[in-house]
Amino acid sequence: MGAELLVVAPVAVATVWCFSSGAAAVRRRAAEIAELPVTWRRVHVAPDAEGCPGIELLVPGAGSSSSLGDLRARDIGGGTVTVEVLGLVGPGGPAGAADRAVPTGRYPLGEVSEQVDTAAGPAWRRTAWTESVVVTDLHLDHAGWAFVVRLRSGCQHDEVLASAERMLASWRWVEPAASQRAAG
Q1: Checking phi first, is residue 5 left (phi over 0); if not, alpha (psi -120 to 50) or beta?
Q2: CA–CA distance from 43 to each of 18, 80, 169, 171, 180 (Å)?
């Protein structure tokens, strides 16, 4: 029991900090990061031929893109942010966002899950800790499609989270044309 308390207590303290005072700190840090000399660019990803909605959002870095593949592994504050389409929600595809965010129990230092509101719509966030990495998955569904925004970092998780918050605040869905929806 004593060893369990040694593991649970630090995780509980980190969790309370992340989700209480951490939220205000993330907002402050997002404002600070917005003022840093990082080039943010608007990326437009068109809907695909199968009817998957596209997205438009701000990402750090230079250049231009028109595919989700370019939204992977962006170096932000010592970590990465990945945006992925998982497929159509339902039989033969991924489960709904709330079910995908349920803690798995595979992380020895703990994991927490909560519902959050974003510019992309309601989402479910699961954060898990290992000895060297913090991983936050933000699961959301839109128009029947499953998406995940994954943040992976070390000790600078607040910086990565603040940058991801800026990306999410700029998120806009690009709906497929009626002909694409009918074909998909």
Answers
A1: alpha
A2: 29, 17, 14, 10, 21
* CA torsion through residues 124, 103, 156, 63, sign: negative
Q: Which of the following CATH numbers is that of domain 2-183: 1.20.58, 3.40.50, 3.30.450, 3.40.1000?
A: 3.40.1000
Q: Is the dihedral of CA 176, 179, 182, 183 positive or negative?
A: negative
Query: Angle, nearest 10°, between helix axes 21-35 and 2-19?
Result: 50
Q: What is the pLDDT of residues 121-180, one digit of tens each?
A: 999 999 999 888 999 999 999 999 999 999 998 877 888 888 888 888 999 999 998 755
Q: What are phi and psi of 12, to 5 degrees?
A: -65, -40
As a whole number of angstroms, the distance between CA 142 and CA 147 comes to 8
pTM: 0.73
Distance CA 86, CA 100 (A): 11
Q: Cα–Cα distances in Å, from 167 out to 4, 57, 138, 180, 181?
A: 37, 6, 12, 27, 26
User: What are the domain boundaries of the chain?
Assistant: 2-183
